[in-house]
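Hi support team,

I've been running sequence recovery on a batch of backbones for a student project. Most finish fine, but this one hangs at about 90% for roughly twenty minutes before it completes. I'm not sure whether the input is malformed or the queue is just slow. I've pasted the structure tokens below so you can try to reproduce it. Let me know if you need the job ID as well.

Thanks,
M.K.
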């Protein structure tokens, strides 16, 4: 993710016994790493007799199309998930003044297993990474004159914002900050969300959120309020798991991907 090329031995996950959804996801990550490496090279190059402006524009266009196709591949990846991996949306019946620790908005997601939640969080963060990378590609001077560039940049920001909200809506479930209970009433299908007040999240729960929050809080294109909440959440969870490096998440020294 730090714009370095991947060694050849890492390119094919099947060599390590990967298959199915795992192999499909890792193939997408390899493609993301390659785009980010190529983008880094373009950002550090200038037109020269060896590389004309037209060649720059062609390479930038290729990167834009590849990032767009990677985003579609990620969406197709989730289409292969078993139905048991799906999640439910809930709304807090008595929302506090939000955002607060662990609750970004009144909308929260629940899953049938923390393991499935972890996979979806991986998806949210990875799509944020892809769209942030594409957003940066679309800001290259070689593409600035493209009549569709502004619309495509807005599309990337929309996806970043949507995935950030999805990730934030998953945090309360992953940290066991609420329970879903049957609500009393004439309908047996009504459910109530009961917040679990009290002590901090357990370390084994907090650690599952570290990677997606690290990615999401480090990207360009994330909204100011979203980024602030994601970073404060990462700092708090870092304290729970005993990782002092995350104290930097709310400072100017935090990494930017």
């Amino acid at each position: 993710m730090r714009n370095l090329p991947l060694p050849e031995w890492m390119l094919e996950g099947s060599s390590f016994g990967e298959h199915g959804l795992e192999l499909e996801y890792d193939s997408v990550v390899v493609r993301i790493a390659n785009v980010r490496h190529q983008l880094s090279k373009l950002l550090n190059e200038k037109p020269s007799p060896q590389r004309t402006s037209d060649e720059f524009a062609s390479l930038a266009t290729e990167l834009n199309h590849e990032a767009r196709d990677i985003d579609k591949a990620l969406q197709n990846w989730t289409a292969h998930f078993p139905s048991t991996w799906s999640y439910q949306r809930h709304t807090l019946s008595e929302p506090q003044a939000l955002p607060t620790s662990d609750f970004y908005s009144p909308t929260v997601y629940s899953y049938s297993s923390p393991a499935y939640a972890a996979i979806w969080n991986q998806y949210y963060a990875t799509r944020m990474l892809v769209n942030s990378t594409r957003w940066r590609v679309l800001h290259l001077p070689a593409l600035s004159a493209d009549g569709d560039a502004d619309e495509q940049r807005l599309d990337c920001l929309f996806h970043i914002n949507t995935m950030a909200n999805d990730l934030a809506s998953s945090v309360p479930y992953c940290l066991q900050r609420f329970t879903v209970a049957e609500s009393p009433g004439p309908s047996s299908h009504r459910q109530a969300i009961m917040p679990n007040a009290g002590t901090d999240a357990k370390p084994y729960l907090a650690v599952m959120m570290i990677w997606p929050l690290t990615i999401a809080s480090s990207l360009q294109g994330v909204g100011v309020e979203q980024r602030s909440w994601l970073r404060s959440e990462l700092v708090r969870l870092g304290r729970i798991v005993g990782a002092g490096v995350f104290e930097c998440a709310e400072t100017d020294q935090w990494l930017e991907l």
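--
Follow-up from support: It reproduced on our side and the slowdown came from queue contention, not your input. The first strand starts at residue 87 and ends at 91. No action needed from you.
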